[in-house]
TrEMBL record, chain A:
The keyword Membrane applies. Keywords: Membrane, Transmembrane, Transmembrane helix. This is Uncharacterized protein. It comes from Chryseolinea lacunae. It comes from the Bacteria. The chain crosses the membrane at residues 53-70, 76-95, 126-147, 159-180.
Automatic annotation (TrEMBL), chain B:
It comes from Chryseolinea lacunae. Belongs to the sigma-70 factor family. ECF subfamily. Gene3D superfamilies: 1.10.1740.10, Winged helix-like DNA-binding domain superfamily/Winged helix DNA-binding domain. This is Sigma-70 family RNA polymerase sigma factor. CDD domains: Sigma70_r4 (cd06171).
Length: 205, 169
């Protein structure tokens, strides 16, 4: 078969289609919000999960600290990590719970996205730091319990911990930069879509 | 252009060019639910892009440009589209005789099977070729070089020969 034969089939198919396709014009007239709402909800849910996980991480640190309570070189950093995570949880309580965005006006919905975007932009600096602090405070105990490496009694183990710390910091910084960039881009796109739908709705039919 | 064009005019443009949108949607999406999402994305992008429409270009060229760009980026997202997002419940297209889909001619089926095995950019190239666009127009619409279009067309022709030399006519 040659390309010309393919073209003939295509045109034949297209001619048949032209007679059969009609537009559901009412659907076009009522530009839907689903895609924007669903996209926003997925970001919101991820953030709420993250917030609740902060509380779980805080509890993990507290429980670990209780097990090594009298070894202050382990327990004090763990408590610092727990406090940092708890602070993160409390700070993120201001994230609004998902609501039925189809029932509110587009302007209200735009405000919700904008508020969330501002919250995320403000939180990104210390959120990354908190997660890094938590990892760093937990690592010495993990190394001791899993690999039997007491980093405070052995210089080589201590060097291994420092190397691991550097790796954690680099990975976390790169990962959070990427994630927050995606968040910001998608939320800006959602706001822009809403603005277009608003313009579309304002024009007369 | 958004400031001067109204919704009625927008719907007229969509109505007159419905075949282009339909063809692109059906070529890029096999899943009916996903098609509805793609239609919606295309409509929003078309509405947004109207303000940048350059009247020196043919309207259909602009339409291809927007729709194919949306389809290509949607195609990338399609695999990730299992995140629990719900699809739209209504399509913008109404078929005059729904049953016809199942009695597609063997030739048409082969045509679609062939196009479906191409990657996202080659799909766009073959659609534009079959719709009668020159290499230059195709390059302009897809934002690639004319020689790149030529190379892709050459590969598609070879693939076509390979495919149909092994299957009976």
């Amino acid at each position: 078969m040659e390309l010309n034969d393919l073209k003939a089939f295509w045109n034949e198919d297209a001619d048949k289609l032209s007679n059969r396709i009609n537009l559901n014009e009412k659907v076009i007239g009522e530009m839907k919000l689903e895609n924007v709402v669903n996209g926003f909800l997925s970001f919101l849910n991820v953030s709420l999960w993250g917030r609740n996980l902060a509380l779980v991480y805080s509890l993990i640190s507290v429980v670990c600290a209780l097990f090594v309570w009298h070894e202050y070189q382990y327990s004090i950093p763990l408590l610092i990590g727990a406090a940092a995570m708890l602070w993160s949880f409390v700070h993120h309580l201001s994230i609004e719970e998902p609501k039925d965005y189809f029932k509110i006006s587009i302007v209200e919905f735009q405000k919700s996205i904008c508020k969330f975007r501002i919250h995320t932009a403000r939180a990104k600096k210390y959120d990354t730091s908190i997660v890094i602090v938590w990892f760093l405070t937990l690592l010495p105990l993990c190394l001791r319990k899993i690999f039997g490496m007491d980093v405070y009694d052995n210089t080589q183990y201590l060097i291994a911990l420092v190397v691991l710390d550097v790796v954690v910091v680099v990975v976390m910084v790169l990962f959070s930069r990427y994630i927050y960039k995606v968040y910001d881009r998608e939320l800006k796109a959602a706001e822009s879509h809403l603005a277009e739908i608003l313009t579309f709705e304002k024009t007369s039919l | 252009m958004n400031t001067t064009i109204d919704k009625e005019e927008f719907i007229r443009i969509i109505r007159e060019n419905r075949r282009i949108i339909y063809k692109i949607v059906y070529t890029y999406c096999s899943d009916p639910d996903d098609r509805k999402d793609l239609e919606q994305e295309m409509l929003i992008q078309l509405w947004q892009s109207l303000k940048n429409y350059d009247s020196n270009y043919r309207l259909s060229t602009w339409l291809y440009k927007v729709c194919l760009n949306v389809a290509i980026s949607h195609y990338r997202k399609e695999k990730k589209h299992t995140d629990g997002r719900e699809s739209l419940d209504v399509s913008i297209f109404k078929m005059a005789d729904e049953g016809q889909d199942e009695i597609m001619s063997e030739r048409t089926q082969r045509l679609h099977t062939f196009i479906n095995q191409l990657d996202k950019l080659n799909k766009a190239v073959i659609i534009l070729h079959l719709e009668g666009h020159s290499h230059k127009e195709t390059a302009d619409i897809l934002g690639i070089s004319e020689s790149n279009v030529g190379t892709k067309m050459h590969r598609i022709k070879n693939l076509l020969k390979q495919n149909f030399s092994t299957t009976p006519n």
